[in-house]
């Protein structure tokens, strides 16, 4: 299962900060956003906003990076510091 | 350079931490500290709760990278970063940064640099809960501009 | 703005003073402090005693004027200046400056400004006593340059 | 009696930080430096150095300012901060 993490206001839209997603094969982040957006328009468009960054297993990546089962994919909206 | 970076969901005592930091110094003549406090007045009137979220592991690594950059740039004897996460109320300490160096300019600039990083680039997400409910906060343009001061010089 | 300016020939505890300063704040979100410590290594090898002399009355008035200038320039809630005089040994706190404001840039700049004043313009005369006897110290060119940063802007 | 105060290294040269001086009539600071220098060359030239400032009763003044009996005259060499 891939672990999806939603930070900041994205957690409100996703209805929680974590979600598990079984992936039988690798998908790009863009594809996963499409899948999530098919069920939930608002979440899909929030995740695709240009200011949202993506991290796989703690490293910042682009939207065309591949997510595999067992990966941790984090959606990082603009940070708001200490 | 000695460094101490902590993210905690427990209240901390800035002056107790500073006393320990000062006691650890052997050469420094200059100690600068920044303490950030929850302000009582938020955008939409009074704030009752300020909540900070982080990404465990990745947030710490980002701060550690910034401390390394500071140590490359200024001759520091030691640096301390303590950042609170979770729910806080007005006047609670949110963040403590302390830097120590032989001379004051290095200590001032390194503390300023680390605070700019923490305010605009570290992985923290902040929400304020007041009379109007919870609201997520994004950095002020000022915070981005402050951080950009260090980019090319 | 509240201000507290003290010159003392007694040892003081910077963190105890900072705790009191922080407790006095009602609006500030940013507290910056500078603590100056006697450094063990002087120009001519190890320093055993550092001694500071001031001109009672006139020194305090000069510092008070600088605090007024800082308050005119930055929106401060409070400022604290404690300066030790007399004989000190390595690691003793010499000076504590603390500033509090709504936002961090004002607090940083005001503390920096006050320290530049104290280092280059306040009426203090410093001597170091080491293996080679007592030697009077004058400001480094760097101290004059630091203070001049605030003159025209 | 006028009180003369010698700060920093000037105190070493004057053999003390304070000295009382009876003035039957007002003298300029420059004159007083001349009088002190007549007895002690080294002190006289140190007090006349351009970086030494003068204060009468706590106010910075020029070398041609008049010092009266009961005044406090301070010789201030370059300061050396905290």
UniProtKB/TrEMBL annotation, chains A, D:
Coiled-coil zones: none
UniProt xrefs under InterPro entries: Beta-grasp_dom_sf, Mopterin_synth/thiamin_S_b, ThiS/MoaD-like
Domain of life, source organism: Bacteria
Protein name: Molybdopterin synthase sulfur carrier subunit
Source organism (scientific name): Blastomonas aquatica
The encoding gene: moaD
UniProtKB/TrEMBL annotation, chains B, C:
Pathway it works in: Cofactor biosynthesis; molybdopterin biosynthesis
Main function: Converts molybdopterin precursor Z into molybdopterin. This requires the incorporation of two sulfur atoms into precursor Z to generate a dithiolene group. The sulfur is provided by MoaD.
Hydrolase among keywords: no
Protein EC: 2.8.1.12
Subunit-structure text: Heterotetramer of 2 MoaD subunits and 2 MoaE subunits. Also stable as homodimer. The enzyme changes between these two forms during catalysis.
Enzyme class, broadest EC rank: transferase
Entry-linked Gene3D superfamilies: Molybdopterin biosynthesis MoaE subunit
CDD domains attached to this UniProt entry: MoaE
Record field: catalytic activity: 2 [molybdopterin-synthase sulfur-carrier protein]-C-terminal-Gly-aminoethanethioate + cyclic pyranopterin phosphate + H2O = molybdopterin + 2 [molybdopterin-synthase sulfur-carrier protein]-C-terminal Gly-Gly + 2 H(+)
The protein's name: Molybdopterin synthase catalytic subunit
Lineage of origin: Bacteria, Pseudomonadati, Pseudomonadota, Alphaproteobacteria, Sphingomonadales
Similarity comment: Belongs to the MoaE family.
Keywords: Molybdenum cofactor biosynthesis
Domain of life: Bacteria
């Amino acid at each position: 299962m891939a672990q999806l993490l939603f930070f900041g206001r994205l957690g409100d839209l996703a209805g929680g900060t974590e979600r598990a997603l079984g992936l039988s094969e690798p998908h790009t982040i863009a594809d996963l956003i499409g899948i999530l957006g098919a069920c939930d328009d608002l979440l899909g468009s929030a995740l695709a906003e240009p200011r949202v960054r993506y991290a796989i297993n703690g490293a910042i990546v682009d939207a065309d990076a591949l997510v595999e089962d067992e990966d941790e994919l984090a959606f990082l909206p603009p940070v708001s510091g200490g | 350079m000695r460094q101490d970076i902590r993210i905690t969901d427990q209240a901390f005592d800035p002056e107790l931490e500073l006393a320990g930091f000062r006691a650890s110094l052997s050469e420094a003549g200059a100690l600068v500290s920044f303490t950030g406090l929850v302000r009582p007045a938020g955008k939409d009137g009074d704030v009752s709760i300020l909540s900070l979220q982080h990404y465990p592991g990745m947030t710490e690594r980002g701060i550690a990278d910034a401390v390394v950059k500071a140590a490359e740039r200024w001759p520091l004897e030691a640096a301390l970063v303590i950042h609170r996460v979770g729910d806080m109320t007005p006047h609670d300490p949110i963040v403590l940064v302390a830097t120590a160096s032989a001379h004051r300019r290095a200590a001032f600039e390194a503390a300023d640099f680390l605070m700019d990083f923490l305010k605009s680039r570290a992985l923290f997400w902040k929400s304020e809960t007041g009379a109007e409910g919870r609201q997520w906060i994004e950095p002020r343009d000022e915070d981005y501009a402050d951080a950009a001061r260090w980019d090319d010089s």
